[in-house]
Glyoxylate/hydroxypyruvate reductase B
Amino acid sequence: MDVAELTKRNIMATNTPGILDDTTADAIFGLMLSTARRIPELNQFVKDGKWNISLQPDQYGVDVHHKTLGIIGMGNIGSAIAKRANLGFGMNILYHNRSRNKQAEEAYQAIYCDLDELLEQSDFVCLMVPATKETEKLMGERQFKKMKNTAIFINGSRGKNVDEDALYDALQNKDILAAGIDVFTEEPTNPKNPLLSLKNIVTLPHIGSSTTECEYNMSKLAADNLKSGLKGEKPPSIINPEIFGN
Ligand SMILES: NC(=O)C1=CN([C@@H]2O[C@H](COP(=O)(O)OP(=O)(O)OC[C@H]3O[C@@H](n4cnc5c(N)ncnc54)[C@H](OP(=O)(O)O)[C@@H]3O)[C@@H](O)[C@H]2O)C=CC1
Ligand SMILES: O=C(O)C(=O)CO
């Protein structure tokens, strides 16, 4: 939303902050586990009746616990991911923001670093920045080449933050091990999107916040915002409260 323009026109803008952080972090963690342990692929292996021999080493996954997770965008959802990773899976946390997040540093021993350093050192790179002019194609050819070729890339933010052609090349050329993607440049993505032809990518149809409970809570807060707005009162989660003169 162009909030400045809405404010100029005296139009209220509201959102549903806070209530989807844990749900989205669960989904992102699901992508991390699915890509690392190759869960969708091995699920299909069993269902296709192929489990008549022992698993071969080329079907093994990689560990998640005690690895290094780099979070680009340590905000609300990034912090909820760091909590799961550090307190639950004993992972080391690196992060990159434009400013320091002291709370995440204290609670999850997160270490601040510049983007290149994070890319070079992380076993998992999780992108959680908003979509802005500054973050458009933040992950491109140069950034994927900086990552370890054993590393896994996760995008739970917005599709436009990634150059999809560069991601395809990185996965195809094995510059990185795998990717887990909840969001695409164009949604729904074209079924002919070359990314979908790759074995080393796990995809979801932008379902970060799509649980029964979370969708209900978001709808309820959206309805409460709307009811207040229609009565001319300040909505519970207004983005541009300056409309009300404070
Ligand atoms: N997949 C899904 O279903 C969902 C996806 N999302 C998406 O997840 C993302 C994160 O959401 P949320 O955690 O609520 O957002 P927050 O605003 O809480 O966090 C965003 C973080 O990104 C950092 N950031 C912003 N710009 C830059 C930049 N140019 N370079 C580096 N860091 C930057 C901010 O820190 P600083 O300002 O210091 O740079 C901040 O820590 C958003 O893209 C959102 O749209 C949200 C909900 C569900
Ligand atoms: O709820 C979602 O799906 C979002 O991405 C919100 O930003």
Residues 20, 24, 73-78, 96-99, 128-131, 134-135, 156-158, 182-183, 206, 208-209 surround NDP (ligand 1) (CB under 6 Å). The two ends are 21 Å apart (CA to CA). The mean pLDDT is 97.
